[in-house]
TrEMBL record:
It comes from Mycovorax composti. Specifically methylates the N7 position of a guanine in 16S rRNA. HAMAP family: 16SrRNA_methyltr_G (MF_00074). Keywords: Cytoplasm, Methyltransferase, rRNA processing, S-adenosyl-L-methionine, Transferase. One of its GO terms (molecular function) is methyltransferase activity. NCBIfam families: rsmG_gidB (TIGR00138). It comes from the Bacteria. This is Ribosomal RNA small subunit methyltransferase G. Its EC number is 2.1.1.-. GO terms for biological process: methylation.
Amino acid sequence: MEIILKYFADFTDTQLKQLEALDALYKDWNEKINVISRKDIGSLYERHVLHSLSIAAAYNFDAGNTVLDLGCGGGFPGIPLAIFFPEVQFHMVDSIAKKLKVVEAVANAIGLKNITTQHTRVEAIKDKKFDYVVSRAVAPLKDLWRWSKPIISKNNAQRSEDTPAPGLICLKGGDLALEIQQSGTRPYITSIIDLFPEPYFEEKYILYVPK
Ligand SMILES: C[S@@+](CC[C@H](N)C(=O)[O-])C[C@H]1O[C@@H](n2cnc3c(N)ncnc32)[C@H](O)[C@@H]1O
């Protein structure tokens, strides 16, 4: 938890309690349903919570915005972001139902009200639009963009100055040159190590593709 407080100072008591509760909840649920690699569970706050919150360090969302977490697995990046942005609605989507069971159990246990879940492949969602799609470790950028573009809402001129235009924001690692070229997009790229100078974030990036 210290690593979170090293980079974020302004949490409310509720947010602090919610963040602190994640450790025991994920340790417990991960025994039943594997959502985090066993070698990483001891580094939950750095490798999962802080990694997810890099999106919040780089981008603001406005109250009332809607965000779809594409392939949320056990809840990353959506759960830490939903704690960080309590006024923003997060729709957690995964094609494996039991992973959403973990998301729902964690959200209920910490009283997170701004989360909904949907068991589906994201390509099947045709009836809803979202201001942003966030995603980590799901698919090549080409596919993420192909799936996201139709469900991202049109540009909203009412947003605050530091809030990005609607788009896809995803967490990626390694050499991205070929993946970006094959995606046909020109993402804005943030090196997470510039936000959080910890060795773990070497070669980890936030990619933002505005619609
Ligand atoms: C490696 S896991 C990552 C989970 C989580 N985002 C994280 O970083 O911990 C990839 C997840 O994406 C889901 N997934 C892959 N393709 C999907 C699709 N087209 N629609 C919905 N979920 C998908 C899988 O079921 C899996 O839970």
